[in-house]
Amino acid sequence: MATRETHDRSHEIPPKASIKLGPTQDEEVFGDAFSGQVVGRFIKYVAAYKALLWVAITAVLVFTVSSISIPLIVRDVYDDALAEGAPDRSKLATMVIVFLVAVGFNFVANYLQELIVGRVAERILIDMRRAMYAHLQRISLSFMDKTEIGKLMSRLQGDVAALQEFLQTAVFAIGDFVLLIGIIGAMVWLDWRLGLMTLAVVPTLFIVRIIWLPHARRSFLRARITSSIVSGALAENINGVRAVQGMSREYVNYDLFDIRASDNLKAANKASKYGVMMLPIVDTLTGAAMAIIVIMGGFFVLGGSMEVGVMVAFVLFVQRFFDPIRSLTMHYNVLQRAMASGERIFEVIDVPVDIADKPNAIDPEEIDGSIKFENVTFGYFPDQPILKNINFEVKPGETVALVGPTGSGKTSTTALLHRFYDIWEGSVKVGGHDVRDVTQNSLGRHVSMVLQEPFLFSGNIFENIKYNKDSATREDVITAAQAVGAHEFIMKLPEGYETELEQRGGNLSLGQRQLISFARAIVADAKILVLDEATASIDSYTEMLIQQALARLMEGRTGMVIAHRLATIRGADRIIVFQDGEIIEQGNHDELMAMGGLYSRLYSMNYASFDDIPDELIAEATRAAEGTST
Amino acid sequence: MRITRMSLHYKWRLLFGFIAIFLASGFQLAIPILIGSAVDAARSLDASSVEIANGAVVSAISSATDVFGEGSNPAKTALIVIAVLLFISSIGRGLAAMFQNYMGESIGQNIGYELRMLYYEKLQRLSFSYHAGVHTGDLITRGIIDVEGVRMFVQTALLRTVFLVVLIGTGMYLMLSEDLQLGLISLSFVPFVAWRATAARLKLRSNWYQLQERLSALTKVMDENLGGIRVVRAFASQDHEMKKFDEASNETLLLANVQVGIRASNISLMSVAFMLAMGAVLWVGGLKVIAGDITPGELTQFLAFMSILLQPVRQIGMMINGFARGSATGGRLFQVLDLDPEIQDKPDAKDLEITNGTLEFHNVSFGYEGEHTLNGISFKVEPGHTVGIVGPPGSGKSTIAHLVPRFYDPNEGYITIDGQDLRDITLDSLRKVVGVVEQDTFLFTASVQHNVAYGDPWAPDDRVELASKYAQLGDYIERLPGGYDTMVGERGVSLSGGQRQRLSIARSIMLKPQLIVFDDSTAAIDAATEQRIRAALTDLTKDRATIIISHRLSSLMHADEILFIEQGEIVERGSHEELLAQGGHYNDLYELQIRPNEGNPTVDGGEGGAS
Predict the structure, then answer these.
(1) Buried (b) or exposed (e) across A219-240, using 16+ Cβ within 10 A?
(2) What is the pLDDT of residues A335-347, one digit of tens each?
C-alpha cells in the first residue's frame, strides 16, 4: 500500500503541499429559488415542445386523478357491493370494471408522462447546450481569450444538466401539487370531520421540515463541495501524473488526497444523517394520522355516521399523502440550483457578438490575394493601442515577414486579417474588400492560418488534414502531405493516414504536428496564408523540413509570416519590422542591412532566432538604431 | 459481484443494517394486519362481540380489555388498542428504516471512499505507457462518475434489495397462510415485476455503458473546439464544428431516449401489473366476502398489504437502474484497478545505494508498440561530467530521458547506476536520485512556493527561494502580486512557456538529484537566460552526472561528450571539437544554427520557391 512510508518529519512541519481546489465561489453561491427572468428565458426553450408538454401535463393530471380515484372506487366496493347485510355481486362486478378502467387510464398516463417528460427534458438539454455552444462559436475572441475553458465546459455540462433536472422536477412538482390538493379534496369530501382531523398532522410536518431544511441543506452543500474538491484533486493528479511520478510525490499526494477524501466521507455521512432523519418523523406522523382514522373513524362507523368504506379509503389515502409533501420541499433545492445554473448559462448566451457580419456582407467567390492596411489603429483595451496608424500593402503572391520584439504588434496584425477583432480606426482590406464588408466565412475560406502551436483534433490524420474542406479527396490530402514532406512519416505510422491521434496529437512530435497543420492549410487552399512561425521549440532538423514545406506552402499564395527564424526572414520578399505597434523599417534583407537600423543590429547579433535575443540587447539595439536615424 | 464482497468489510454496519431490515419488515407487515382488524372492529355493529380475524391482535385487545375493565365498550377499546399499536408500529418502522438507510448509505460512502483511494493510488502507479495511451478525460470520468455510480449502487441497491426480499417473503408467507387463493392473486404481480426488472436491468446496463462512452466523446468534441478556437475561427469551420457537435450530441440523445423509453415502459408496466392484481383481489376477495369466507377486514388487510408493497415495487425500477449503473461503472472502474503497473518494484527490490553516482547505459534498446525507438545505446556519465544528446525529432532523445527514472523499461540491454540495475532497485529510491527536467511542465493549482517545493514538501522557505533564484525565476516571482504565495496553475496566474520551464528547473534543483537530465527543458527560455541558469548551476552540477538533451547546440556544446542520435542509434559521438572536425551531421547542424547568415545549402534550396 502506498502509505507504507511515513514521513518522520511530517508531524513537526506542515508540508509545502496542498490541494487547493475548491469550487470557485460563483459556482456555489445559492440564490433565489425563483428568478422570473431565468424562468422566462427558459420557457422559450420549452415552448418549442409546447404540444408535447401539454400532452405530458395532461398525462400527469390524468395520472393524478386516476390515482386518487382508485381508493374512492375501493370505498364504493365496501359500501355498495359489500354493504353489511346486502352484498351485491353485480355491483361488485361493475365496481371492478370501473376500477380496471381507472387502472387503464393510470397506466397510459403513467407511461406517457415518464416518456414525454424524459424525452423532452433530454431534448431541451441538447437544445440549450447547442445554443450555448453555437454562440461560443460566434462570440469574439476577446471574450474567449479571457475565459477559462474549464469554466465554459462546466456550464455546457453541469449547468445544462441542472436545468434539465429542473424541467423534470417542475413537471412532476405540478403532479405532486395536484395530487396533494386532490387527496385533501377527496378526504374532505368523503368525510369532512375525519378529513380535517387527519389533515391536522400536515402543519406539523411543514414545521418540522422548515426547521430541518436549513441544517440539512447546509450539510448537503458541504457534502457537495467536499466532493467537488476531491474530484478536482483527482483530475489534477491525473493531468500532472508525470510530474508526480518523476518527483516521487506519490506518498505525499496519497496522504493529502486521503485528507480530502476523508473530509468528504465525513461530510457525506453527516448529510446522510440529516437525510434519513426525516424517515421516522414522517412515519410517526403517518402513524398518528392512521391512529386518528382508526379511533375517530371507527367511532364514527360505530356510531353509524360514516360508512366503513370511507375508513378504508382514508387509510389508503394517508399512505400516499406524505410523498408529495416530501418531494415538494425537496424540489426547492433543485429550483435553487436551476436558477443559479440558468443565470450562468444565459450569461454566456448573452455575451454580445461584437463581430457580426453586416446584413449585406458579400461572399466573394474569388479574391486576388492582396492585403492592405490603411491607417490601422487597434488595441484590446481602451486607451492602450497595440497598433498605431499602421500602413502597408502586400501584393498578390508576395511573401512578407513580420519581425520585431515580443509585444510589438505582429500577432495582432495577423489576427486582424481574419477580423478576429475590430479595429478602432482605418481599414483592413483583403483582396480589395474591407474585412467588415465581407462575411467572416469568406475570410476563413480565403485566408488560412497556421498557428505557432499546432492544434490537432481527435480523429485520424486524414480527417485532421482534410479538416473542414468537405470537397477534398483522399488524393488532395495525400498530395498536400507529400508537398509538406509529411507523407513519409505518416506512412510509417501503424495505420498510415488512418492512425488515430491521441489527445491533441500527443503521439506525434511537435514538428510532425506542425507539418500536419501545414498540410491542413494546403488542403484549405486559401489565397492568403498567415503563418505564425514556431519559436524555438522546433529543433533544427525539423526546421529544415519545415523550411522546405514552407516554401511549398507559399507557392502561388500571398504569405504573411510572423517570422522568428533568420532563414525564413531572409527568404521573404519583404520584411516589415515592428516596434511598439509601429512599423519602423520595411524592405528586403539587403535593403534593411544597408539601412543599418534595428533590423541590421539585431541581425548582426548572430542569434538563430530574434526571440532568443534578450530584452536588454533589444533595448540597446533600439537605442543605437535611434541614434543612427536621428 | 466484487462490490458486494467489498461491503462485507463493514460487518457491523451490515449486521445492524440487517437487524434493522428485519425490524422494519416486521413493523411494516404489522400495519396491514392492524388496519384490517380496525375495519372489522369498526364494523361490529353488535358492540359486545367484536369479530377480529387475527389471533395476535385479539389477544392484545383482550389483555387491554382486562386493564380497562369489563365495563367499557369492547369495540371502542379494540379500536383504541389497535390505534395505539398502529402508532407504535409506524414509529418502529420509521426508526428501523432510518437505521437501515443510514447503514446502507454509510457503507456506500465508505466503499466510495475506499474505491477513490484505490483508484488514486493505482493511477499514481500506472506507468507512463498506460497514461500515454488513455485520454485523461476518460480517467477523470471514471474516477468521479464511476465511483459515484458504485457508491449509489451500494447505497440504494444493496440493503434495500434484501429489505425487499424479506418484506415480500414474509408478506407472502402471511398472505398465503391467511388465504391461499387470495394470497396468490395478491402476489401475482411479483413474478411479472421480477421478470421485467431483470429484462430491463440488462437493457439499461448496456445502454448506460454506451451512453457514458458517447458522453465522453461529446465532451472531447466540445473541449477540443474551445481549446482550438483559433483554428476553428481561422478556418471558418464553425459549420463543420457544429456538425461534429450535432453528430456527437444526437448520438447521446438517441441513447438517452432509449433509456427514457425503457424506464417509462418499465415503470408503467410494473405498476399496472400491481394494480391489475389489486383489481383481481377486489373481485375475488369481494366474492369471498359476499360468500362469507372472509371478513371485510381481511380483505382490507390484503389491500393494505399490497399498498405497502407498492412503494417497494416502484423502487425495483430505481434499483434496476442502480444495478445497471453499478455494474457498468463498477466494471469500468475495476478494469483500471485490476491493471498491473508495467513498471513496479521487484519483490526483493533494494534501495539504490549511491557510491559514486555513475550512470551507464549498456547496449539499451527500446521499442514502443512494435516500433524500435532506441537501438543499442551505450554510454556512461560520471559525476561531474555532462553528456549532451542531440538529434532529429523522433530519434529517441526523449526516450533516453524517460528511461533513466525508469518511466519505461528497456526491451534489451540494461541501465545501471553505480552498477545497480535499475530494475533491481526500488522506484522510490531511484526517482529521489534522478531529476528529470521535462520540456513540458505541469503546474499544480497551488502557490508558486508549493509548486517549486513539489518534490520536497518539507523544504524550508529559503531553499525554495534559492532554487528559484538559480533558475532565474526569483525576480519574476518577487514581482508577482503575492510573491511566493501567488497561486498558479489552472485557477491561478498563468506562466509563459519559458517561466514554466524555469519553474521546472527550480523544482528539480530542490531535489538535489545525484543525476540530472534536462529533457529539452530550455527550449522556451532565451539563450542569455539559459546561460545565466547554467552558470548558476555549475556549482550544483560539479560533482553530479548531467545529461542535456537539446536541439539547441549552444545548450550542449560544452558537454564532455555529445551523442548525435538518429533513428534510435548513436551515429556520431565525441566532444564538440571532435564532432565539428568529423564534418558529419553535427557539423551540418552547427552550420545551420550558429552561423545561418553564412548560408546553408539545404535551407537555401528550400527557400527557392519563396525568393
Answers:
(1) bbebbbbbbbbbbbbbbbbbbb
(2) 777 787 888 888 8
